[in-house]
Amino acid sequence: MGAYILRRLLLIIPTMIGIMIINFALTQFVPGGPIEQIAARLQGEGDVFRNIAGAGGDSAGAAAGEYAGARGLPPEFVAQLEKEFGFDKPPLQRFLSMMGDYLTFDFGESWFRSISVIDLVKEKMPVSITLGLWTTLLAYLISIPLGIRKAVRDGTPFDTWTSGLIIMGYAIPAFLFAVLLMVLFAGGSYWKIFPLRGLVSDNFYALSTWGQIKDYLWHITLPVVAMSISGFATLTLLTKNSFLDEINKQYVMTARAKGLTERRVLYGHVFRNAMLIVIAGFPALFLGVFFGSSILIETIFSLDGLGRLGFEAAVQRDYPVIFATLYVFGLIGLLTGILSDLMYVFVDPRIDFERRAG
């Protein structure tokens, strides 16, 4: 197993290089770069240059102070911006310099926020951790028992009407369900039970420990439920089909013939084999929810997380944020793939990736 893990770790290097090369090359052809973004802001805001001082530095801001919106950007100001952003260097040199910094996890500063990328990600992380962790746990806690019960009672009215509800939930877009929850439970038209926005209240740090816990859970209820609704269908049906496949195998019939109770057969023999694919997929599922948290859900509930950060960085062409998050999240994604394989072995020690690789 050690040799297999080592090979997988070594494969991360060329994979990450390929990911970064492709995305870096794409940005060279995308119109509306950071300099064009600043030009558009200036043309829309007249002589308000103080807002871009962080992007171009004090010297760039001083040069921009002579700009009149109708005449366009002065060439010397554009040259200063290109130097500040590094666009005065060839693309290959910029790419190699960026990758050299990333190897030491030096991601620089955001061009439009005057804050380091690491600090920016840390600032948005609590929202994404909240949505990712609680959404995944809620999906597993409900979907697995429901899927097992549907497998045991396959073809019964219970299986039929629960399947209908699950498919309906899957068909409803998460953002539409979020709006419905707000209308019903956040003071839209009916009950004002849950807060409308934010992760915690303004007086959160003045509350007691128990008060902080209640306030936190009070705020995350609606966004987590909205995020989870579409994930129930896949996980529930995956659990059901996995159990049905195992229940019909020969070893189950043999266990029943020995006189074992149905509960002993189900949880003593079927459970470990049926849950292999479900449990082993937990890291990948959590990562998908964690880093793919809905931009619309965050916007609807006024949650400032990584979803909105990535969207705003792409719109503003904030390349340090885009490439740094791509690098970190891609690296975590590849490591999660290895973790998923280890979960397979942990759940079922009979799996030997080393032998398969050989």
Summary?
It contains 18 helices and no strands. It is mainly α and 358 residues long.
Describe the structure using short key phrases.
358 residues; mainly alpha; MetI-like fold; 2 domains; 18 helices; globular
Overview of the molecule:
The longest helix has 36 residues, at 117-152. The chain has helices at 2-27, 34-45, 53-64, 75-85, 91-103, 117-152, 157-171, 174-185, 209-228, 231-247, 250-257, 262-274, 276-280, 282-291, 295-300, 306-316, 319-347, 353-357. With 358 residues, the chain is an all-alpha fold. The chain is built from 18 helices and no strands. The chain folds into 2 domains: 34-106, no CATH class; 118-357, MetI-like (MetI-like fold), CATH 1.10.3720. Helices cover 73% and strands 0% of the residues. It starts with a helix and ends with a helix. The chain is globular, with a radius of gyration of 26 Å.
Low-confidence stretches: 46-71
Looking at the structure, what is the overall shape?
globular
Task: Classify the secondary structure makeup into a structural class.
Answer: mainly alpha
What is the CA-CA span between the terminal residues?
11 Å
Helix coverage percent: over 70%
**SSE string:** HHHHHHHHHHHHHHHHHH
Oligomer: single chain
Number of strands: 0
State the CATH architecture of the largest domain: Orthogonal Bundle
Q: How many strands, what sense, and barrel or not for the largest sheet?
A: none
- Give the number of domains: 2
What portion of the residues fall into strands of 2 or more residues? under 5%
Total number of helices: 18
What is the level 1 CATH name of the largest domain?
A: Mainly Alpha
Question: At the third CATH level, what is the topology name of the largest domain?
Answer: MetI-like fold
